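Exam revision sheet. Question 4 asks you to relate a sequence to its structure. Input first:
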Amino acid sequence: MHSADGSEQRYLQLFRGSFTSALRWPQLDALWERVRERAGDDWYIYAVGESPPGEPADAARVETFLTEIDKLLREEHKEDYCGIVYADDLQMPSFIKIYDPHNLGVSCGYSDNPPLPGWIMSLIPPVDLPATQVVTKKRRRWWQQIFS
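Answer key, C-alpha cells:
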C-alpha cells in the first residue's frame, strides 16, 4: 500500500474515518439532493469488487447512479428506515459508503471484520479495497447494465 503521493493512504484513512448514517429515508433523500447539487464535482463512483474508476463520473453518470442506487435500496431494503448509507458529512458529503442490502453483516456497531460497502462515492480517486466479499453475478450485471 505504498504510493509516491500518499493518495492510497489518504483514501484508506478517509475510508476508516468517522461516518454518519442517513438513518431515515428523508435523510437519504436530503443526502442525494446535496450530491446532485454538486454533481459536476469530481465524484468517483466505485463498485467495490470491480476495478476502481480512473476518472471521475460526469454529472449525467452521477445522476444515473443516484437514481438507480436509490431505486435498488428502496426495493431491496424493505425497512421503514434506511441506515445503510453513511457519509463523512451529511450536509457537505465528500465520501459516501453505500452498503448492499444483501451483504450487510454488521455494518453498524462494532465488528472485527465489518463487510465492505457495495459502492463508494468519493471526491478523491479510490483504491482497490481488499475483495473480502463476493460480488454476486446479479449485482455485477446490475452495475454493468446501468453504465453500458
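Marking note for examiners. The two ends are 31 Å apart (CA to CA).
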